[in-house]
């Protein structure tokens, strides 16, 4: 119906740079926290994201950067999930 299909994934490994690892890990943690409407995914549940960020307790500048990084990944993921074949 929506989302990724097995054929959307390649066997190619992707390297995550160390400076991106915190955002990548947080995005993985949020993988089950998509808000969904009749039309499909609409975005991540930011309440859950902020709760997790608060528990991680990063310095304010890192907190803001993680929010920005997640937003970028969310926008790209939504674009991929909402593509029409």
Q: Can you characterise this structure?
A:
- By secondary structure, the chain is mainly alpha-helical.
- The protein contains three helices and two strands; from the N terminus they run αββαα.
- It has a domain at 34-79.
- The chain has helices at 21-29, 46-56, 60-81, and strands at 34-37, 40-44.
- The chain has a two-stranded antiparallel ribbon.
- A hairpin with a 2-residue loop joins strand 1 (34-37) and strand 2 (40-44).
- The protein starts with 20 loop residues before the first helix and ends with a helix.
Shape: globular
Rg estimate, integer Å: 14 Å
Count of DSSP-assigned helices: 3
Q: What's the story with the biggest beta sheet?
A: 2 strands, antiparallel
Give the CA-CA distance, first to last residue: 12 Å
Q: State the order of secondary-structure elements, H for helix, E for strand.
A: HEEHH
Percent in strands: 5-15%
Report helical residue fraction: 40-55%
Order of strands in the sheet with the most strands? 1-2
Number of strands: 2
- Arithmetic mean pLDDT: 91
Low-confidence stretches: none
Structural class: mainly alpha
List keywords for this structure.
85 residues; mainly alpha; two-stranded antiparallel ribbon; 3 helices; 2 strands; 11% strand
Please give a quick description of this structure:
It is built from three helices and two strands, in the order αββαα. It is mostly helical and 85 residues long.
Question: Topology, pairings included?
Answer:
Layout: H1 21-29, E1 34-37, E2 40-44, H2 46-56, H3 60-81
Antiparallel strand pairs: 1-2
Helix pairs in contact: 1-3
């Amino acid at each position: 119906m929506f989302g990724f299909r097995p054929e959307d994934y390649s066997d190619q490994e992707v390297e995550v740079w160390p400076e991106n690892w915190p955002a990548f890990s947080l995005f993985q943690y949020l993988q089950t926290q998509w808000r969904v409407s009749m039309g499909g995914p609409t975005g991540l549940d930011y309440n859950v994201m902020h709760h997790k960020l608060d528990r991680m307790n990063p310095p304010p500048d890192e907190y803001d950067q993680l929010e920005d990084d997640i937003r970028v990944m969310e926008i790209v993921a939504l674009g991929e999930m909402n593509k029409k074949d």
